[in-house]
What we know:
The protein contains 6 helices and 7 strands. The chain has helices at residues 17-28, 40-51, 69-83, 106-133, 154-174, 208-219, and strands at residues 8-11, 32-37, 59-63, 88-91, 137-141, 180-186, 229-232. Belongs to the short-chain dehydrogenases/reductases (SDR) family.
Amino acid sequence: MKNLQNISAFITGGTKGIGYSVAESLMTEGANVVITSRSQKSAEAAAEELNAKGLPGKALGAEADVRNMDSQKKAVALGVEKFGKVNVVVANAGVGHFAPIQELTAEEWQETIDINLTGVFNSVKAGLDQLIEHEGYLLTIASLAGTNFFAKGSAYNASKFGLVGFTQAVMLDVRSQGVKVSTIMPGSVATHFNGHTPNEKDAWKIQPEDIGQMVVDLLKMPARTLPSKVEVRPSFPG
Length: 238
């Protein structure tokens, strides 16, 4: 996909952090984007903010909950209606609950799995026909926690280990149909994840725009080459 002006991307959790930066990076290259949030107001506000930057691409905000398959299908359909196709899916929406297993609640476990794993399944299934039709690109945003376990991470580790395995299996399922699939596994990123407020002390961390640039770079890779699993970490730990 050398010419990203031919891209219409569907990005879950696109109103802030990594998702927003991916949308902005793609729009800078001339791509159109559909960004989703569980709040229509938040989705529309983020899209308006992106469009106000005067970037060559266009943004559309859509209310959608990754836990609900129908809402994912409707959001993809909005993208097709607005931009003619959806040929890139970026499954980014995620949540983190961190506690020792003795304290982790059933509700926290279920929400983590529902959003981080089942939610990606729903997003992939919703966009799959479009990806196959247009020989598109699927990217999932996993985590280094998908290969490195840690204390208080039983729910998060389970979801991200599962996401890495899911994505790699999907890659094998669809690559013969011209669809490229990558999972990006960031370490510490300066975002609002898990209630954090980015600040000057986060300078050592990966910045959201770094992941946005990585998505652009992956899309521009030669068609013959597929970085199917990309680990990314801060150059110097804080």
